[in-house]
Design goal:
Length: 145
Amino acid sequence: MQRSRADPRGQAVTLLEQLSHTGRLWRWTGGSGNGTWHFVTIDGEAGEALSGTAVMRKLEGTARGFGSLKVQARIGGTRFATSVFPSKSDGGWLLPVKASVRRAEGLAEGDEVGVSLEYCPLNRAVRCARPRQRPRSPAELRRSA
């Protein structure tokens, strides 16, 4: 669902897409001592929304490395910037969950994790903004009229 509004200078601004998903936290260990990473797989309807954005970026010629998409993620009260990556094995998307986030939220491998993601549905050349978090005051409504 793509929405636009005008910024204070009158330019169109596309609002960030928002989606929520719940998935299990799992661990991947690389060979030859390459380290351990923890992920939540984003699949189902949320994964399809991310895949649609990735297809549009590819058609526009603005796709990023590995087909990744930049996102703002929130798990519990912890908000962090990262990228999601397409999963070749199951068709979903992989959300890496840093150790600092796991510690802050008391997460362990195998836990069910509720994730909220925000991302710009269009390419980097388009300015995106977060939706308003509060209703407009009467003074704001008069100024925008």
